[in-house]
């Protein structure tokens, strides 16, 4: 996460007019490319430093009754900018070793926009949420082939907890036996995460591996459980047959 640093200095300045004393707020700030030095009276800017024209600007009309500020304020503003940028360098050096905040997606959901009918066009939605920073990279596969046509991706949206959500869509026509995969990549994930939609048993083990070696565990367990049950049934059958 890139760190942007802006230094602001707030202070109080007394200026003198013929009618008495006025207390003003002074705001001085800087960034890598810009600087600001202003005087504010009753929420009105009465003076500011124009660093492009190298002069101080009295922003109130000449006929207005307002305090007179001391001479040399622009030169003081320039000096404040030099100090501010030195402090900016020091702050950036002190912060460069701070660990970057990385949060992996805590939820990946895949579903269709309407009820599925074989041969009728539909849209698959892959919704990813809970990640930081943005964005995520989402790719689609149909069986073992990458799909680009008919895909779209929304911009990241901020969640209340400061994390992000993002949605990818795929227009498709459902057919029996097809399996679609939504593959999610993010800087906080050590391996891509894949969510599947379609027949769980229509892919061979080789096809699962081709899609992603780190597939969604719930689908692998479904296949493994089915194979295990069939194995036990076959074992019981052979045992009984052998005793006859």
Fold and architecture overview:
The protein has 244 residues and is α+β, with helices and mostly antiparallel strands. It folds into two domains: 89 residues, Class II Histocompatibility Antigen, M Beta Chain, Chain B, domain 1 (Roll), CATH 3.10.320; 132 residues, Sandwich (Immunoglobulin-like). The protein is built from three helices and 14 strands. The strands form three sheets. Strands 1-2-3-4-5 form a five-stranded antiparallel beta sheet, with helices on one face. Strands 6, 7, 10, 11 and 12 form a five-stranded antiparallel beta sheet that branches. It has a four-stranded antiparallel beta sheet with strand order 9-8-13-14, with no helix packed on it. The protein is elongated, with a radius of gyration of 32 Å. The N terminus is likely disordered. Keywords: Adaptive immunity, Disulfide bond, Glycoprotein, Immunity, Immunoglobulin domain, Membrane, MHC II, Signal, Transmembrane, Transmembrane helix. It is found in: Membrane. It comes from Neolamprologus brichardi (Fairy cichlid).
How do you describe this structure in short?
With 244 residues, the protein is of the alpha+beta class. It has helices spanning 73-95, 205-211, 217-243; strands at 7-17, 20-30, 35-41, 44-50, 55-58, 107-112, 122-131, 137-142, 145-147, 151-153, 157-158, 164-172, 179-185, 193-198.
């Amino acid at each position: 996460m890139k760190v942007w640093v802006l230094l602001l200095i707030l202070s109080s300045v007394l200026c003198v007019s013929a009618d008495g004393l006025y207390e003003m707020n002074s705001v001085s700030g800087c960034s890598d490319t810009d600087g600001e030095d202003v005087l504010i009276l009753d929420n009105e800017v009465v003076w500011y430093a124009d660093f492009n024209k190298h002069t101080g600007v009295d922003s109130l009309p000449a006929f207005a009754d307002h305090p007179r500020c001391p001479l040399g304020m622009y030169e003081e503003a320039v000096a404040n900018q030099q100090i501010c940028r030195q402090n900016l360098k020091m702050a950036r050096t002190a912060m460069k070793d701070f660990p970057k905040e990385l949060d992996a997606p805590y939820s990946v959901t895949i579903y269709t926009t309407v009820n599925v009918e074989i041969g009728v066009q539909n849209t698959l939605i892959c919704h990813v949420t809970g990640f930081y920073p943005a964005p995520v990279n989402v790719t689609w596969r149909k069986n073992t082939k990458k799909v680009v046509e008919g895909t779209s991706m929304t911009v990241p949206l901020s969640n209340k907890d400061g994390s992000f959500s993002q949605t990818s869509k795929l227009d498709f026509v459902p057919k029996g036996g097809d399996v679609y995969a939504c593959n999610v990549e993010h800087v906080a994930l050590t391996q891509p995460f894949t969510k599947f939609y379609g027949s769980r048993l229509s892919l061979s083990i080789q096809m699962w591996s081709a899609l992603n070696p780190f597939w969604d565990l719930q689908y692998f367990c479904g296949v493994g459980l089915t194979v295990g049950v069939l194995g036990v049934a076959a074992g019981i059958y052979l045992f009984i047959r052998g005793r006859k």
